[in-house]
Every structure is written in structure tokens, then in C-alpha cells.
Amino acid sequence: MTDSSDDRARPPHERHRGAVTLRRDSIPPSTADEKLLDSHHRGEWKTKDAWRALRILSEFVEGFDTLADLPPAVSVFGSARSGPDSPECEMAAALGAALAEAGYAVITGGGPGVMEAANRGATEAGGMSVGLGIELPFEQGLNSWVDIGIDFRYFFVRKTMFVKYAQAFVVLPGGFGTLDELFEAVTLVQTHKVTRFPVILMGTEYWGGLVDWIKQRLLAEGKVSQDDMELIMLTDDVEEAVQYIVEADKALSGNGNR
Ligand SMILES: C/C(=C\CNc1ncnc2c1ncn2[C@@H]1O[C@H](COP(=O)(O)O)[C@@H](O)[C@H]1O)CO
């Protein structure tokens, strides 16, 4: 496919694979994650997976090296599809600002919607704004409020960074991606894979039904315990969320965890 000169004047659609930027005809139909995880690519297991392991390792090195000097941080999750004037984006911007004012860096997936609003809030309040992007067939690149950005090929490497460098998780309204991030965090805390840290759901109207269902079904049937229910805080109040993070952080660092 060739571009007209008009098309070339516009920023081209691009795909990021770690340090590599691909544009136009160089954008492949599949992502690195798809090739690694999809059993239809089993023909490549013998020839390619050992090399992929080195690429995966290099993503860990890049992430660890770039993020090691971050101040205490909070990972903020939420919909890639919310409009900038939506209530959740307004809440995310206020949250990003309040976290920055409390001295926390804000880490998001670096995408549009709620992620962008949280990055914007943090940047405008003079805080550090981090975006951990992921190669997706429909990605839009890192939002322009990200000050430190890393583009990952592999979802699981990126997820390690969200957990390792955060003192807390805050989850705003979102879809499957957001639910995945919420339940991964809660499971890690529940199974003591990470130090107990706050997992906060923001948006009582949005999340209330899910929390009720967890109580009425999972708790009632013994699939989770009352203690597990306490792993999640539900609020609409930005100040309350930040206060909860600050206090949990103090309690944990008092135990010699920092
Ligand atoms: C859907 C569109 C762009 C997608 N771009 C994304 N960039 C970065 N991170 C993303 C993206 N999409 C999902 N994520 C991650 O999942 C969470 C949001 O997913 P949801 O399904 O929208 O809830 C988010 O926290 C990211 O970490 C074009 O609009």
C-alpha cells in the first residue's frame, strides 16, 4: 500500500514492539503475545521460543532498569474507551493530581480514556507520570501526558511492573482489561504473593453490583472469606482513597518494608 502525500503529512498509524516502532506496511497482522501464546503457532515452538525467552528477559531488564528510581507509586487502572468528559475520567484526573500532591508517581497502561486522565492529573499537578504501554493490534501509542513510558511486547512482563513498583492499586470503571487487573491484584494479595497493599475500587455506582454479587454469591457459598472481602475498599472519594493509601504505606514501611 502506498500513501498519498496528504496521508504522509498526518502522523501515521504505528505499532510499538519494545524499542521498535513499526509503521504502514511494516505493521504485522499479529502481536508478539499472540505468537507466543497461540497454539496455532506451534510450528515456531522449536525454532523461535528459545529466542523469544531472550526478548522476554530483555523486557524485564528494560523495565527494572527504567523504574528502579521511581518514588513510591500507585498503579491506576480503568477503561481505555471512556471519553475525556466522562465522570470516570474526571475522577481519574482528580485522583492523579491528589496522588501527585501526596508524593506518589502515577503508573497507568499509558493508553487513552481513564489512563490518560490519570496521567494528565498527575502531570498537571507536577507529579511523575508513568505509562506502561502494550503492543495491541489497535493501540494508539502512549498518551501525551506520560513522562516516563515503556512499550512492552509481553503482557505478563508489563503486569509484573504494575505490581512491583506500586504501593497500591486503584481501579476505576472499565471493561475486561480493568477486571483482569483488579482480580490479578486481589489474588496476589489474597495468596500473599505480594505484601498486603490497598486495592481500591473507585465508583460505587459502577462497581456496587459486582461487590454485591461477590458477597451474595462468592462469600455466601464460601468461595471467598470475610477476610478476603476486606482486601477491597470501595469509594467515590478521592481524598479518602489517597488517605487510605498513605496510611497503609506508613504502616507497611513501619514494618521495615521499604
Ligand atoms: C481500546 C483502545 C485502545 C487500547 N489501548 C490500550 N493501551 C494501553 N493499555 C490498555 C489498552 N487497552 C486496554 N489496556 C489495559 O487494560 C485496561 C483497560 O482495559 P478495558 O478493557 O478498557 O477496561 C487498562 O488499565 C490497561 O492497562 C482504543 O480506544
UniProtKB/TrEMBL annotation:
Single GO MF descriptor: hydrolase activity
Disordered, as annotated region: 1-40
Highest taxon, organism lineage: Bacteria
Listed GO CC annotations: cytosol
Biased composition (Basic and acidic residues): 1-12, 22-40
Broad enzyme group: hydrolase
Alphabetically ordered keywords of this record: Cytokinin biosynthesis, Hydrolase
GO biological process: cytokinin biosynthetic process
Catalytic activities: 9-ribosyl-trans-zeatin 5'-phosphate + H2O = trans-zeatin + D-ribose 5-phosphate; N(6)-(dimethylallyl)adenosine 5'-phosphate + H2O = N(6)-dimethylallyladenine + D-ribose 5-phosphate
EC numbers: 3.2.2.n1
Similarity comment: Belongs to the LOG family.
PANTHER family in UniProt: CYTOKININ RIBOSIDE 5'-MONOPHOSPHATE PHOSPHORIBOHYDROLASE
Official protein name in the record: Cytokinin riboside 5'-monophosphate phosphoribohydrolase
